[in-house]
Amino acid sequence: MGVAEDFAPSFTQKPQLRQEDEGNRLVFECKILSSPKPDITWFRSETQLAENNRTVMKIQTVGTNLFLVVLELDDVVESDAGLYKVKAKNKMGEVAASINLNFSPVDEPREKQIDGLAPTFSKKPAIRQEDDGKRLLFECRIQADPTPSVVWSHGGNIVKDDARHKMKVDKDGHSYFASLEIKNVTIEDAGKYKVTAKNELGESNATISLNFDSDEAPVPEGGFKPTFTERPVTRQSDDGSSITIECRVVGDPKPTLMWYHNGKAVKEGPRKIMSLELDQKLYYMARLDIKNVENTDGGEYKAVATNKLGDATATINL
């Protein structure tokens, strides 16, 4: 069972405005905590800003996963007034904040300055068992203002409330306790779960994997479609000449597995060897071994597991 180490961006310092050169230059600054490094976009009202001879954008690393984000405006004119918004985004989520630049009451923007808190996970998802493992609870704590919407997904598919699945979000000040309850657990519930919290200031997500030991969970009658229980990982030889991509999949009946590189099916040969071996009951370890690695081996790799009940996909970039 594992939780993703990366996290969505969050502001440690909201945008602030200062003047330089007797007001001819304006500097917007904020600090963002993020892993991996975020992509930054600035807007004036709804228009995305681009760098030019008057507009300079910077992002500097100032600590561990901490970034100073700067927008500089030179030769300031009254038409520069308006609502400025900065958006930071990485693969784990996004966050936004804004600040008004007004020279007179006439310049008051139509859009209100955004205040509050984009969702962040103060407690990452954890799994709790009840009723001798027949009932599972995924639980996490989220800080946000205004209230976030919370969505759970399993293997890339959105989880919906039904007889077996119940979702709750309980408020506690600006903190929210989110849970996903699964009843009558079977082995097909194994796999990667993602929870996404979103409000008008941004969104954040966190993941956790559910695995069962052999014979720990019941098997549905008639079998079940494949599910990747963990995201693919790469292992490199000491000299860097060979790489192994591997991922774990569960399914009944045993799935077949295909690998794709940048959208094209991988063909087995002297340099590329594919295998699918039983790891434990109904769990299989899929591997792609690449020898004498070349520059052209870089790119996206996709594993597709298929049986008569469905298929599943897992991707990794090399």
Topology:
Blueprint: E1 7-20, E2 25-35, E3 39-44, E4 47-48, E5 55-63, E6 66-73, E7 82-90, E8 93-101, E9 117-130, E10 135-145, E11 149-154, E12 157-158, E13 165-172, E14 175-182, E15 191-199, E16 202-210, E17 224-228, E18 233-236, E19 243-252, E20 256-261, E21 264-265, E22 272-280, E23 283-290, E24 300-307, E25 310-317
Antiparallel strand pairs: 1-2, 2-6, 3-4, 3-7, 5-6, 7-8, 8-16, 9-10, 10-14, 11-12, 11-15, 13-14, 15-16, 17-19, 18-19, 19-23, 20-21, 20-24, 22-23, 24-25
- Large-scale geometry: flat
Structural class from helices and strands?
mainly beta
**For the terminal residues, how far apart are their CA atoms?**
24 Å
Instruction: State the fourth-level CATH superfamily of the largest domain.
Output: Immunoglobulins
Q: What are the segments in which pLDDT stays under 50 over at least 5 consecutive residues?
A: none
Q: Helical content, roughly?
A: under 10%
Task: Tally the helices.
Answer: 0
From N to C, what is the helix and strand string? EEEEEEEEEEEEEEEEEEEEEEEEE
Mean pLDDT: 87
- CATH first level of the largest domain: which class? Mainly Beta
